[in-house]
Amino acid sequence: MIASGMASMKLDVEKFSGKNDFGLWKVKMKALLVYHGLTSALKPDDDEESSISREMKVEIMEKAHSAIILCLGDKPLREVSKEKIVIDVWKKLESLYQTKSVSNKLYVDDLEDLDVKLEDDDKALMLLNALPRSLKISRMLCCLVGKIKSAMMGC
Fold it and tell me: Structure pTM?
């Protein structure tokens, strides 16, 4: 009974457009890959694993690559279209869309849930602060925007 219900279950993952939540899309995409038995494609290549033939591993990787590509909107697809290996597609998507600072996103969401209106410049400062420290220009911009905001408030 359960097996027949599972066999007829329709699995549908909304395409990732670059505007929807990447974290949730990633969870759904992993679940889809698990369901289809393709999760080994996202693991580093392990030469010691002899239980899967080379041909089977290639087939799994091609199916996983296709599944991910089919679940991408045009913009993200253009950004990863040159990646031929599934793990490279996955890593590129993570580098482009994975939130660097989940706490900032949660903080903004919490404030908006409390009907606290954030000005665009406040959101911009939070975004700039979430950037990696290696981006020195972000710190300069933060200082500049902060000074401008302070000057405007003094008027």
Answer: 0.59
Q: Are 145 and 125 in contact (CB under 8 A)?
A: yes
Distance from the first to the final alpha carbon of the chain: 72
Query: Cβ-count burial of 76 within 10 angstroms (0-12 exposed, 13-18 middle, 19+ buried)?
Result: buried
- Residue 20, C-beta contacts closer than 8 angstroms, at least 6 positions apart: 14
CB 30 within 8 A of CB 39: yes
CA-CA distance, 92 to 83, in Å (whole number)? 8
Question: Under a CB-based contact definition with an 8 Å cutoff, are residues 18 and 73 in contact?
Answer: yes
The tens digit of pLDDT for each residue in 5-54 reads 445 566 788 999 988 888 889 999 999 999 999 988 888 765 545 577 88
Cβ atoms within 10 Å, residue 72:
21
Query: Which sign does the torsion angle of CA 96, 38, 34, 64 carry?
Result: positive
Summarize pLDDT for 88-124 with one digit per residue, the tens: 999 999 988 886 545 455 555 666 666 666 677 666 6
Round to whole Å and give the CA distance between 69 and 16: 10
CB 123 within 8 A of CB 108: yes
